[in-house]
Structures are given as C-alpha cells and as structure tokens.
C-alpha cells in the first residue's frame, strides 16, 4: 500500500503544535491502523543476549567503547539462558521474542549460540522468533531461518542525509545490504530508527519515506533516551505531544507496517503512552529494553485492552494480515505452557513461571569508563572519530551471566 500522505503533507502535519490538531491527526492515524489490522496486536519482548564493549561509534549508544558512561557488559548468553528469558516473556503475554546482540556482527561461536537459542525457543514456547545480530550475509540469514528465526531486525537509525552524524564506523549502505540479504533469505524484515537525534523535520520525513521504499514488515520507533557520556547525551527529551504527532505521521506514510514503540517511550512520552498507541501502534516492546527499564507487562497490556484491542494469541499470533506462524518451519507441536496463566501474575507464579522480563538493573554488570568523549560535532569536518584502533579498552568484562539470571 502506498503512503496515505505526500512528503509536503507530512511536513505540514509535522508543523502542528496545537494539541487539538494533533488529536485530530491521531484519529486519522487510528482509522488507518484499524482499517488494516482491526483489533489485532503484536507485542514483543527482547533479551540483551550480548552487551557492552561495542567497537562501533553510534552516538546514541552507551554500549559503544567510544562512550564515557557506565557500560553494561556481559558475554554472549548460553542458549539455555536465552530460553529462560523467552519463557518469562511468554508468561508476561508477549507474542514474539527478539534475541539482540551488540556490534556489527558475531563470531562463529556466538552466532552458533544464537542459532541454538532460537531452536530452543521454537521447541519450548509458542513465541515468534526474531533476531538482531548486526550485519550478515545471505548464508547467515538462511542459517537463522533454518534455526526457526522468522524476522530479522536491522535499523537504518535515521535519514540517510543525517546518518554521518550518527555513526561513521557502521555505514548506511551496509545496513541496506543486510536488509537485502535478510529478504533474499526469505525472512521478514524489521527496520526502524530513532527520533530526536538532532535531525530536522525534513529529515524525519525523509527517513519515513526511506522506510516506505524498504517496505519492512515491522517498524520499531525509538525515542532517544539521552545517556550521559554518549555523543547525544546532552539532548533534552522529546516533547510527548511531538512524539505522538510523529508516530501518527509515520503511520500514515507506512499504512501496512506493523508499528511498535520501543526504547525511550517511558522517558519521552510518559502518561501519553495510551495516546501514542492510538496514533497507530500495533504493539510495544514489552517490559525492559537493552539497557534501561520500562513499563510493567500489566501496564503494557492494559494500554491496548483499554482501546478495545485484542492482546490474546490469534491463529497467526497477532501478525495479521502478514502472518508468519511457525507452520512448516519446524516439525512437532509446541506446547502452550502459559495460555491459562496470563490473567494475573499470581496464577503464573503458582504454575512455577516467574513473570520477570529482561532486567538491566539486576542482570548487567557495569564497567566505568575513564575515557574522554570527543565533542559533539557541529559539521562534517568534526564528525565522530572512526576506526577500531582509535582506543584500546583493557576494561572489557568478558564473563557471562550466572545461569538463570
């Protein structure tokens, strides 16, 4: 489906400031969402399977070794640990589960752990499986598919014209090549970005139309949560009404994409999160994020049910009209171990299932950094330094989490 508005119309809507006008825009976006998806939802949860010590210079990320901030650190989780997080996500009501790692790619050993973890999640839960593991070839994407992964996440992060201010070590063209490889392997694509990195309204519209040309199945929208010591750590939060407005604009530009709101939604939107859902969201990233805390699963589910949306599992697990259910992917039936325990936390825990999603506060080790962060760039000549050999980090924590955390 083509965009429902033009670039000029998107820019005109981006200039709205009156709350009543934004509410009218939200109603228009809600109509577009319901027309395509009805009352279905698509709730996702993630696990930060490998964290910290990233060699890249993405300016929004505390995991970068270029950042002067407390850095969350742990080595690649074992497949059994990934499964434990998946079971907790399912007990909390998630429809899908994403295994996320830092960096441009994985070693052969770490990639095998992702493959083995995906197989366990497919065998022991009814969750749909996603992965976000950096750049990859068609061959690696096919291996993910064979292991039971159905969708691969790889953001463009921002508009191409603004991208050099975001990263110099991870090329925009490389991101597009990975997305092409994922699609060639027969997998669905999850491609989005981050708002409030310093981009202009024109660049926000540019990114939305770039995403429309990519035509991903899923579009995650992140709102910058400025982390002290990162390149963009001095930015203010986005105004909640401004955030809701741009979610609605993106919905009208990408009417068929599954929209989910991810990092920074609690800090930037706060009490307006239900209005953001009405602006066109299919789901949210439930629970906690890569390195920060989020809403409780109960709060997330209530946001959708209060609008009359169905958070229960559908035959295609809430991904209509683009189902990617597991039929034909792996042999055997998957037991539904939590279907009757989703109503209350007490019932789930009585069944021996602890509803505890990824918790950065207790499940990450932190290493303080002593480095001096380069100044925020004002122009192309002062952009963020690149290259893997700019800094040598002797403080990386390479030990994994204890089993069960």
TrEMBL record:
One of its GO terms (molecular function) is biotin synthase activity. Its EC number is 2.8.1.6. It holds the Pfam family BATS. The keyword Transferase applies. Its cofactor is [4Fe-4S] cluster; [2Fe-2S] cluster. It catalyses: (4R,5S)-dethiobiotin + (sulfur carrier)-SH + 2 reduced [2Fe-2S]-[ferredoxin] + 2 S-adenosyl-L-methionine = (sulfur carrier)-H + biotin + 2 5'-deoxyadenosine + 2 L-methionine + 2 oxidized [2Fe-2S]-[ferredoxin]. Residues 369-390 have a biased composition (Basic and acidic residues). It is an enzyme of class 2 (transferase). InterPro entries: Aldolase_TIM, BATS_dom, Biotin_synth/BioAB, Elp3/MiaA/NifB-like_rSAM, rSAM, rSAM_sf. Pathway: Cofactor biosynthesis; biotin biosynthesis; biotin from 7,8-diaminononanoate: step 2/2. [2Fe-2S] cluster binds at residues 98, 130, 190, 260. [4Fe-4S] cluster binds at residues 54, 58, 61. Residues 36-265 form the Radical SAM core domain. Residues 369-405 are annotated as: Disordered. Keywords: 2Fe-2S, 4Fe-4S, Biotin biosynthesis, Iron, Iron-sulfur, Metal-binding, S-adenosyl-L-methionine, Transferase. The keyword Hydrolase does not apply. Binds 1 [4Fe-4S] cluster. The cluster is coordinated with 3 cysteines and an exchangeable S-adenosyl-L-methionine. Binds 1 [2Fe-2S] cluster. The cluster is coordinated with 3 cysteines and 1 arginine. Catalyzes the conversion of dethiobiotin (DTB) to biotin by the insertion of a sulfur atom into dethiobiotin via a radical-based mechanism. NCBIfam families: bioB. Belongs to the radical SAM superfamily. Biotin synthase family. Homodimer. This is Biotin synthase. It comes from Paraconexibacter antarcticus.
